[in-house]
Write a structure and sequence with these properties.
Blueprint: E1 5-14, H1 18-29, E2 34-37, H2 52-59, H3 98-108, H4 116-129, E3 133-134, H5 141-154, E4 159-160, E5 162-163, H6 190-196, E6 200-202, E7 205-213, E8 216-225, E9 230-243, H7 246-256, E10 268-278, E11 293-297, E12 302-306, H8 311-316, H9 322-330, E13 335-342, E14 349-352, E15 358-361, H10 366-385, E16 390-392, H11 408-413, E17 424-429, E18 455-457, H12 472-496
Parallel strand pairs: 1-2, 1-9, 2-6, 9-18
Antiparallel strand pairs: 3-5, 4-11, 7-8, 8-9, 10-13, 10-16, 10-17, 11-12, 12-13, 14-15
Helix pairs in contact: 1-6, 1-12, 4-12, 5-10
Length: about 500
């Protein structure tokens, strides 16, 4: 089919999330002509809808219904808009843990990419540019404040969450998109910064194939959403193609383009689950940082954190039916919700389905579920420690409502199966693994594809293992260093031409 729209740049970047936007920002500053392609809409400068369903329809892939395959599906949440998932998350910032960095260097040969001083430099630059700061006490609100109180009473290592939102107003609407643009997500920060430095952006452009000629990536092809129809396009890349479509869609694009070896393997995640507590006094979840306080317990394999929900989602978390549920609904301002993010060890696969969408097969191990159970039990204990009169553990086979602290034992000692857990994952990794040895990786220590020249992958797909912490900051720092190398290589090519 003849393209109806064509373009050309030094580097074509597919995706505008943490990886793609950072790559575009670094490459543009280096003087390269960059074209950013984003499948979703450009909502910059648009007041996002406050109603949850409207917001999900605009910003979430598949309306938030993307799941793993199998008898017990797990929702896999991803943003689909300019800014990617950074535009709809809470802006949590964690540096790559040193034990993970050492593991990647020692086992996967990534020392060239992850030199400690260079990584420190990248982190410091990003934190400065994105206004990273810890959540102040004035923005705790009831939800974060209750977790801080529980951590203090139980002697847990709680702390305020560092976020890229120094100007946060505490409106608890991160999931719908920050209404005041205080959170420095990629749509607010690095996408416009790249454009100021000469990059171009084309939204609603779905990339369907990487063009490979003579073993070298020369561009991409896909379709544009032109309102009533989709029209074909081609974008040519003089120096490189950077794929940053996320851990689910990057492997689909690579496979559709002829790359097979290792692509879509080693899928990993941080599944989460949540506990709700009812308090006699108002909590008012609608005020405060969406996620402003955390209890990192890395040695136990999980991290506990607050998570404020819009009223529509919070209502769905309440137990009971009929008059009982309506009675609880009237008390929406008296609930707190906290969640556990668990560093699962399971490995899965991502493959294209008949419709072209990713088919994700991922089965948690028994140890993974045991850690999740321990995390949920601790959340229940914390709720009671903070003064909750009722706690809703959200586990199958157990009472919907706990009303005494001693009942936490039921959660801790229960024999649970995968079907008893309500899990959801938004931190996804590993489907185009970086490894210095081409026999074990899809990309090398510069994030260059082993099997196709001038093709790079710059998103969480390249992470060999999951992190145990929120990944956005690590994605950006790793991509920053890889993009600097790409810019240097492109400059050398240009000088030699």
């Amino acid at each position: 089919m003849t393209p109806r729209w064509t373009d050309e740049a030094d580097v074509v970047v597919v995706g505008t999330g943490a990886g793609g936007a950072t790559a575009a920002r670094v490459l543009s500053e280096a003087g390269l002509e960059v074209l950013m392609l984003e499948e979703g809409p450009d909502l910059r400068g648009v007041e996002r809808p406050e109603q949850l369903l409207e917001a999900l329809a605009l910003t979430m892939r598949d309306f938030g219904s993307q799941t793993t395959a199998g008898p017990v599906p797990m929702p896999l949440l991803q943003g689909r808009l300019v800014g990617g998932s950074t535009a709809i998350n809470s802006g949590i910032v964690w540096r790559l843990p040193e034990d993970v960095r050492r593991d990647w260097v020692d086992r996967f040969g990534l020392g060239e990419l992850l030199e400690a001083r260079a990584l420190e430099r990248a982190f410091e630059r990003i934190e400065r540019e994105l206004e990273v700061t810890e959540t102040p006490l004035a923005l705790y609100g009831g939800n974060n404040g209750k977790m801080a109180e529980a951590a203090a009473r139980l002697g847990l290592p709680g702390k305020p969450i560092a976020r890229n939102a120094r100007r946060c107003e505490g409106r608890a609407r991160c999931l719908q998109g920050c209404p005041s643009r205080a959170r420095q997500s990629m749509d607010v920060s690095y996408v416009p910064r790249a454009i100021e430095m000469g990059a171009r952006l084309r939204a609603r452009a779905r990339v369907e194939r990487i063009v490979v000629r003579g073993g070298r990536a020369t561009g991409v092809r896909g379709t544009l959403d032109d309102g009533d129809r989709r029209v074909p396009f081609e974008a040519r890349a003089r120096r490189a193609v950077v794929v940053a479509a996320g851990a689910l869609h990057t492997p689909i694009l690579l496979r559709r383009s002829g790359l097979r070896r290792g692509v879509g393997d080693r899928f990993q995640a941080h599944p989460g689950s949540a506990v709700v507590g009812r308090f006699d006094e108002p909590v008012v979840m609608a005020f405060g940082a969406t996620q402003g306080y955390e209890v990192p317990l890395r040695e136990r394999g999980f991290k506990l954190e607050t998570l404020a929900l819009p009223p529509e989602m919070l209502a769905a978390r309440l137990p009971g039916a009929g008059a009982e549920w309506q009675r609880r609904l009237v008390e929406l301002d008296r609930y707190a919700q906290w969640c556990a993010q668990v560093r699962f060890r399971a490995l899965g696969t991502v493959r294209p389905g008949w419709s072209g969408r990713p088919v994700v097969r991922y089965v948690p191990t028994d140890d993974d579920l045991a850690r999740m159970q321990a995390a949920i039990a601790l959340l229940c204990e914390m709720m009671f420690a903070a003064g909750a009169t009722e706690v809703f553990p959200g586990l199958g086979g157990l009472p919907e409502v706990l009303d005494r602290p001693e009942q936490v034992r039921l959660v801790r000692e229960a024999r649970l199966s995968r079907r008893d857990f309500h899990l959801i994952a938004s931190h996804l990794f590993g489907t185009a693994c970086a490894h210095a040895d081409r026999a074990h990786g899809v990309v090398d220590a510069r994030l260059r594809a082993h099997d196709v020249e001038r093709l790079y992958v710059m998103d969480a797909s390249v992470f060999p293992t999951n992190l145990g912490v929120n990944p956005q900051h690590s994605i950006m720092a790793v991509v920053w260093l890889a993009a600097e190398r790409l810019a240097a290589d492109a400059g050398a090519m240009r000088a030699a031409a």
